[in-house]
Amino acid sequence: MTGNPMGLMEHDGLDHALAAASADAAAAGARVFPCTVFQQGVRTMISTSFPYSFLTRQVVAESADKGGDPANTTNRPLMTDHVKSINHYVRENRGNYILPPVTLNARQLPALHVPRGNFKNRLGFMVVGDSVRFYVTDGQHRITAIKGHGTGRSAIPGLLDLEIGFEDDSLAVLIVVEDDLKRIHQDFADAAQTKQIPASLLAVYNTREPINGVLADLVDQTRLFRGRVDATSSKLPKASQAVFLLNQVRQFVKELLFNDYALSEDSVAKQSAQLIGDKTTRDEFVTDAVTLIEILSEHMDPWREICELPTTGGPANQVADFRQKYINLTATGLVVIGRVAYEIRKSPDLDWRLEQYKRLATEIDWRRNASIWLNTIISADGKVATQRGPVRDAANRVMEQLGLQVDVDL
């Protein structure tokens, strides 16, 4: 065995490294963790996984107080609502969840036993005694969600305190050997340089939400949306051949289901579980939504014309021209349709609902320059409004023109 100034102990092979680490652990009452030891720049990094029981004892999050000085603590102020949402997500998805790795820092290098060799990336064994503490660089909310937080009625239970048990679960960790607090803060800032997933793409990937399952069916089963919805962009390019972003269709579904396209995601999760949480109610809603879109696509300009176009190639460029002329090819116009349809769907009379969908398509002038939209969702200078108030006013005008009852609370 040989040592080096950094504290790594090198051995003639992996088996000798394991034997030495096990002997150290037995002598000190410590624990051995298999790991990968590597470098980034000039610093030593250690990658392994810690069981939740170990995390609760030996991983420390030093959170700044709200209104205090974060320069003297490792972590930013703790956001208890974020902790609660993570804790709730794990508990509700006990058999099928994922928590990404956290980044920890060690103020001094733990005892490491590795095979001898001129390699920058080596398997090895880390020996950790009960007195060793690791400090959170990035991931304090995940750690706190596992540990639990608070007392009394507002307490967030630790995962190991629950009867369903998470004793066998572990979390991947990256350990950075660093004792400089300023450098630790910089590591946190560097780790935060991630790009948020566009809302449209998140709607594709997050299938745990019932509303996103509805969204997938709606796009797949309707002539207008199929092949013409952009699911990857955060903003629809002016010359795009797509009719809508997927997130804009999602806003339409929120309006059709909840009468509120801007409903918070926490409320969406709760209400969608109540309204379309089981397959029967979900299928019924999908059928009605598809019927609505198909009737509009058959009778309403320019949706009718777009459905006759190919989804790609030169003719599909007409979509961009239509977008400049028609309000029902904007996110706001789509939401107005959803709001009016929400009111129509209140009737138990299916034949009456279908007739109103057709009237919505044929009796309303959906051109941007139509007087019905002026000073509601279209301003005097031609700009399209997106706020709740103008959307409500425009929907009321549509219902008045169709002779439908206008809800003063809309």
Would you kindly provide a written description of the structure presented here, covering whatever features stand out?
By secondary structure, the protein is of the alpha/beta class. The protein is 42% helix and 15% strand. The protein contains 15 helices and twelve strands. It has a ten-stranded mixed beta sheet with strand order 1-2-7-8-3-4-10-6-9-5. It has a two-stranded parallel ribbon with strand order 11-12. Helix 7 packs across helix 8 and helix 10 packs parallel to helix 14. It is elongated. The N and C termini lie far apart (77 Å). The model has no long low-confidence stretch (mean pLDDT 89).
Order of helical and strand elements: EEHEEHEHEEEEHEHHHEEHHHHHHHH
Largest sheet: 10 strands, mixed
The geometry reads as: elongated
Percent range for β-strand residues: 5-15%
Compact description:
The protein has 410 residues and is α/β, with parallel strands linked by helices.
